């Protein structure tokens, strides 16, 4: 009887030590709960048919505060085509806008200004303005 008691006590003690070791191992694991970073390629495009680009602004992502872009960069005047590729990297799950605002002067009433925003090679937004005074803007929001 004494032998059974000692044997079961030893078994319980071994189980307790094993459980404690496993628990300490699990508790001491380093867990990084920070979401991974994700990179997106944003391409802005503008094309004037029968006219000239006079001004514009786009979200450049040159400065980021609290996970959000804060700088709008200027589009140079002149020419009938413009494009800009911007690569951005932020934490997974963050929502971010992409913005393009363009102005152009058309030579006649059938002149057009077409602006587009692509994210990772996919067209996400397109706007077309027609006339002599051409204004177009588009904005999207995407998730990293």
Automatic annotation (TrEMBL):
<protein>
    <recommendedName>
        <fullName>Lipoprotein</fullName>
    </recommendedName>
</protein>
């Amino acid at each position: 009887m004494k032998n059974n008691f000692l044997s079961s006590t030893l078994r319980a003690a071994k189980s307790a030590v094993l459980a404690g070791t496993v628990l300490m191992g699990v508790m001491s694991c380093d867990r990084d709960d920070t979401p991974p970073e994700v990179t997106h390629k944003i391409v802005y495009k503008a094309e004037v048919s029968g006219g000239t680009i006079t001004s514009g602004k786009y979200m450049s992502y040159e400065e980021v505060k609290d996970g959000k872009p804060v700088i709008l960069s200027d589009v140079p005047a002149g020419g009938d085509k413009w494009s800009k590729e911007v690569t951005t990297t932020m934490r997974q799950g963050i929502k971010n806008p992409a913005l393009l605002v363009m102005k152009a002067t058309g030579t006649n009433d059938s002149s057009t200004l077409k602006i587009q925003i692509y994210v990772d090679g996919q067209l996400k937004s397109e706007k077309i303005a027609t006339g002599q005074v051409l204004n177009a803007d588009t904005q999207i929001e995407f998730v990293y």
